[in-house]
Design goal:
- Helix content is 25%, strand content 25%.
- The protein has two domains: 30 residues; 93 residues, no CATH class.
- It is globular and about 60 Å long.
- A six-stranded parallel barrel has the order 1-4-3-6-2-5.
- It is of the alpha/beta class.
Length: 125
């Protein structure tokens, strides 16, 4: 075999491997913004403490009716019924000190935003 043919064959194989790996990653990214509530702090990715005031919140969250509305957004959540299809698992706690994020639920998408810097910023989506 000529060197050019061997090189072309290697490039084709590399391309197929990259394409396969990329296609396998798509389902992992498609659930962005979807959350699943668990009851135990140990089973949660992040613990949430609910506050009544936007000024007390780290994050103001709008709960969407559509999964596509929440895609790629920390501040817009879509609840899923299956833990496996969630991007993040949350647990609501009764104590601020147990929480990773203090959340205020808002009625408008335009009010949904991070209010304070937090280590979870950019990681809930």
């Amino acid at each position: 075999m000529s060197n050019i043919f061997k090189r072309d064959l290697k490039m084709k194989r590399l391309f197929i491997v990259i394409l396969t790996l990329w296609s396998l990653s798509i389902p992992l990214c498609s659930n962005a913004g979807s959350v699943f509530e668990v009851k135990s702090k140990g089973d949660a990715d992040v613990c949430i403490y609910l506050v009544n005031s936007k000024s007390d919140a780290d994050l103001c969250v709008y709960v969407a009716d559509s999964k596509s509305d929440a895609k790629g957004k920390d501040e817009i959540w879509y609840y899923v019924k299956d833990k496996g299809s969630a991007d993040v698992t949350i647990c609501f706690v009764d104590s601020k000190s147990d929480a990773g994020v203090k959340v205020c639920i808002v009625k408008s998408k335009s009010d949904a935003e991070w209010k304070k810097a937090n280590k979870w910023q950019g990681r809930l989506k």
